[in-house]
Amino acid sequence: MKILILGVNGFIGNKLVKKIMQSTGWEVYGIDLSCSKLSHSIDNPRFHFIEGDITIHKEWVDYHVKKCDVIIPLVAIATPAHYIKEPLQVFELGFEENLRIVRLCVKYGKRILFPSTSEVYGMNSDPEFSEDTSNFVFGPVRKQRWIYACAKQLLDRVIWAYGTEGKLDFTIFRPFNWIGPKLDDIDAAKEGSSRVVTQFIINIVMNEPIRLVDGGMQKRCFTYIEDGIDCLMKIIENKKGLCRGEIFNIGNPHNECSMRDLAEILLALYRNHSGSEAYSVSASEIIEVSSDEYYGEGYQDISTRKPSIKKAQKLLGWVPLVGLESALEKTLDFFIEESRTKGLLCA
């Protein structure tokens, strides 16, 4: 099997390549702006990497969509700070470029595994979000926070429409707050534009305040990356064709916690970390800020985001195994080591 991964150096892409190289005989063709996270696979003869931009290297992308069996476009901007500051960039990359990839898959008759997002459910009040029955509930247009979710939702609908007309073989998957080593770049966290777990960790190791937006009562379900990748591998393999035309939530409903609890758990883990005796007492304090102050007027939050994973359990036999504290500890370990290497740890 030949697999094309666009955005292969990202958090999901690099882990997926590593798993494929370790456990299968599949070939992977990948493109990204760098290969900084791919040292584990870059020399493998079954991994073919090109440094490039899908918005520029369009002929390369076209040729490899035609050449490969499964297409996985992982290119998007997935940090809330960017939704507010650069909404058009989020739309142009996340929607327009991905729509081009979808249409190439239609043109060449290729199977696409499309990464949607848990954010498409928006402010839905269901206790658990179902892929097939839960409504999408977004705020007003002036709240630009929703441009990412809207773009993903529309692509989901376009893909579904192509599928119902018999023009596209697809599976859509929705990651729910995947975490783990290499989650974000530390420099992005220093600039305040990373995902929440990375942001809290870099605040802690640099002895900066942890800022809880609007009190930190918002809840999320955190999923360890290896659990998520295991599910993706089952989707790629697609035994008996059970994944065709399906949408899967990939998350861990048992790993739910509030942002305040997340900050407190990470602080406790850091202070007890076996490799950070010299830094065992973080001076970080937890403070509250308004969403307008932290993100700007275009932000609107989601109080809870818990997946139903009954479909993945039934069709794929998949269940997440890594608990919340273990997932956070593994993520923290990586960032402590990287921070130490870059001289960022504060005594």
From TrEMBL:
Top-level taxon in the UniProt lineage: Bacteria
Question: What InterPro entries does this protein map onto?
Answer: Epimerase_deHydtase (IPR001509), Lipid_A_modif_metabolic_enz (IPR050177), NAD(P)-bd_dom_sf (IPR036291)
Residue ranges of domain NAD-dependent epimerase/dehydratase in the record: 3-251
Q: Which PANTHER family match?
A: BIFUNCTIONAL POLYMYXIN RESISTANCE PROTEIN ARNA, UDP-D-APIOSE_UDP-D-XYLOSE SYNTHASE 2
Q: What is this protein called?
A: NAD-dependent epimerase/dehydratase
Lineage of the source organism?
Answer: Bacteria, Pseudomonadati, Planctomycetota, Candidatus Brocadiia, Candidatus Brocadiales
